[in-house]
Amino acid sequence: MVSILNDRRSGTWPGLVRRYGTAILSTGFVIWIRSLLQPWLNEECPFSLFYLSVLLTVWIAGTGPAVFAIGLGTLAAAHFFIPPSSSLLIDDVPDLVQLIIYVFVNCVAIMLFNRAERQRDLAEKRSLENERLSDDLRKADLRKDEFLALLAHELRNPLAPIRTSLALLERNEGSPDVVRRMREIIHRQTIHLIRITDDLLDVSRFCRGKVELQIQRIDLRLAIADAIEMVENAFVSKSQRFQSLIPDDPIWVDGDRVRLAQLLANLLGNASKYTPEAGRITLNLELIDELASIMVSDNGIGFAPLQAERIFEPFVQIDASRTREYGGLGVGLTIANRLVALHGGTLSATSRGPGMGSCFTVTLSAAASEASRSNSRHDDFAAPAWQTPCQSKSSVTTGGKSLLLVEDNKDASELLAELFRAEGFQVNQAYDGVEAIQKATQSHPDVIIMDIGLPSMDGYETARRIRRSRTITGIKMIALTGWGGPTDRDLAIKAGFDLHLIKPIAFQTLLDHVEALVRHASQADSDDKPNLIPA
């Protein structure tokens, strides 16, 4: 019985035999019962018991066998219980009416049963779907909790030495050498915090599809050189032996040099992280069948072959224990994989097992070799002259130049103000958009450095009102903000900013940009506004 109920929709021959056999057996059973009742019923109610066979069949075997049972019941009633006996002809009108009612009622019953069954199946599917969604939500909630715990751990790591260094500096008891070392520690840990933030922002942009590439034809060797420069300190700090096998001839690809360098730096940094001190790391670049292949291999901890796909998932690390020996958020390979995909390439990972090292291979489509020679030299990738801020402090006289800082974070504003005062600027401060307009009107500064996320009035609207004012003209404005997408730069252009810089930024870089604007404003032909440059 259970087997038949389970395959009531089965189309296999064994299933069909069982289902239609149910119709035959149930009809035969009803014929036997009706025959036993014949002395009492005679010719009355010839179809009454056959309703049971149809209902039993539709419940056990499904629609097709139930319709078959209707036909069998009709033939059995006509042959055995409706006069003339042993004939299939029905001449009596009342018997014909009973037959019509029998067929109609059973068809309605079958349809109602099917409808109820569909609703039950739908309810079961919804229940299973709800269980799956609930399970997914529980897993997502667990991953969220794990990620928040991981993020808190990774943030505490650099914050702890920063806090300790500040405590030592507050005592004013350290020698100049100690102060220098404390400053170096704070600088290193701040850079680490910035990298964590940048990685999180990159993952967020990838998830929202907001990453845009600046495609140009480049020599892939240059991106590799950039990547090596970014991670060489990691190799030195762990006394690792790094070897790069780069061909003498250029290998051209159509790609974003900055992003290609980023993904390769992630692969090299990942290799350094999971390779012990004095370990070996190799980068090999070659051209194979119109494909540029970059292979980063190491003799580090490796991974199980079954983990080859999982390691590209966000926030996944081979070492997920609480020891957190290797640190990091586990997003470096995720970012690298997404960047390779955006370039139309592939990234694969292989390892013979734990302790056997690993190998990551990037494959990109090679471009035609007839690229201009200008792309083959590092110098030709430098920014145009108008984009390059002045690097010499002596080239611009900042004494007497006025600056307005608009920042709602008072600590950040005070620190920047002190740094600019030390460079000879006259600095005013405002903490919201309305106050910024008032102070700009009163003091008419040479340069305004403004945050975007301001209370009462955001930086875009504040800049627009300053530009529309007839009493405030010739002021250079810099947007210094944590919003760094292409859309944000476009909004800054429309609002009237001269530059769009992204927090956090090194003070010297910010000072160079300010000096470049001051120099530009001091020129006789300074009517044209320089284009926006990203930090």
From TrEMBL:
Mind listing the GO molecular function terms for this protein? ATP binding; phosphorelay sensor kinase activity
Domain named Histidine kinase is located at: 150-368
Show the Gene3D superfamilies listed in the entry. 1.10.287.130, 3.40.50.2300, Backbone structure of the membrane domain of e. Coli histidine kinase receptor kdpd (1.20.120.620), Histidine kinase-like ATPase, C-terminal domain (3.30.565.10)
Keyword Protease found: no
Q: What is this protein called?
A: histidine kinase
Matching entries from InterPro entries are given as:
CheY-like_superfamily, HATPase_C_sf, HATPase_dom, His_kinase_dom, HisK_dim/P_dom, HisK_dim/P_sf, KdpD_sf, KdpD_TM
Biological source species? Rhodopirellula maiorica SM1
4-aspartylphosphate PTM positions read D451
Every Response regulatory domain range: 402-518
What enzyme class is recorded for this protein? transferase
Pfam families in UniProt: DUF4118, HATPase_c, HisKA, Response_reg
Q: What is its EC number?
A: 2.7.13.3
Give the bilayer topology. Answer: Multi-pass membrane protein
Checking SUPFAM superfamilies in the record gives: ATPase domain of HSP90 chaperone/DNA topoisomerase II/histidine kinase, CheY-like, Homodimeric domain of signal transducing histidine kinase
Keywords linked to the UniProt accession: ATP-binding, Kinase, Membrane, Nucleotide-binding, Phosphoprotein, Transferase, Transmembrane, Transmembrane helix, Two-component regulatory system
